[in-house]
Amino acid sequence: MRRRILSEADWRPTDIEASERWLRPVTAAESADLADAVTALRASGRPLLEITRRDVPLGRFAAVLDKARARLEDGPGFVVLRGLPTADRPAEENRLMAWAIGTHLGVARPQGRQSQLISDVRDAGGTYRSGSGRGYNTNSELDYHTDGSDVVGLLCLNTARSGGLSRLSSAVAIRNALLETRPDLVEALYGLFPHSRQNEEAADEAPWYMAPVFSERDGAFACRYIRNHIRSTQVPGGAMEGAPRLTPLQHEALNAVQRMAESPEFSFDMWLEPGDFQLVNNHVLVHSRTHYEDFEEPGRKRHLLRLWLSVPGARPLSPALREVYKSVEPNSVRGGFQGRGITPELVAYQARAAAELGMRDTPYRL
Predict the structure, then answer these.
(1) With 247 labelled, which of 66, 213, 285, 300 sits at a CA distance of 20 to 30 A?
(2) What is the number of structural domains in the chain?
(3) Chain segment 226-284, per-residue pLDDT in tens
(4) Do residues 309 and 152 touch, judged by C-beta distance below 8 A?
(5) What global pTM score does this model have?
(6) 308 in any annotated domain
């Protein structure tokens, strides 16, 4: 019999609104230390893959990141660092800033077919609800979902003319509430669901895989809810040939998660401001974004930089997630979408970054 999960990540919006522990304004001194590090990195001319934690002394800002990482695993599962010095900086320096922050938090993971380690979150005309659709390159409203790593980080550079609200819900709270009313749906969510790789699989990967939505190991809960990827497997024929059809109970369970996540009872909404860095633990929270309308001027369009991170101190994962995470052990490099752009330089970066953070590498085969 499944029991309620006790966790600080079991929260409702009223709990979050009553406490601003999730919001950390950056002081002028901390911001100056970060800015100095970025300036030095740009002057060095080193490519991103040659920059790891030891190359980025962040001074007083480093302690901010250490505390933020702890809150992601042991607290509410998200943190917003407010007031980073992004204004009036060249695009190259803001990318260096995102990367510099990432080096102190974890190991960057590839995010798609090109194996990119930083993604530009902006409307590039993509189609969300398609067999190869990804939400980050559209202006569409997104299903609540998790990303493919321990932690996702978003550095906000520009906001939209209207819309683009960031939304978070606790998967722990949803699971616990559903357990009280529909334990049969909770049990279904612990079963295996087919997931499409959205045409971004590596050459040696199948186009779809099986994984649970809810799982546990050694008392640690994890959610992997990517409805759009599950939906893609239900299109008959083609690359999805052989993917199991969802049962009525599985459909009902997925609908329940989406319905609860988007309800005011569970969803905490926030506007991200330029200079905000939002960090979210994908194992305990689901997130979304509302539809947005952009400015006409290219330089004013909504733009965020996204990092996927494998972080030290993250929870153990169920063996049922090995197919997608590659490793399910804590303190190991795991997660991401391998894609087809893995290079010797990326492999070397990963090994070096893991060693500096005290993590076990899970190397890609070239």
Answers:
(1) 285
(2) 1
(3) 999 999 999 887 789 899 999 999 999 999 999 999 999 999 999 999 999 999 999 99
(4) yes
(5) 0.95
(6) yes
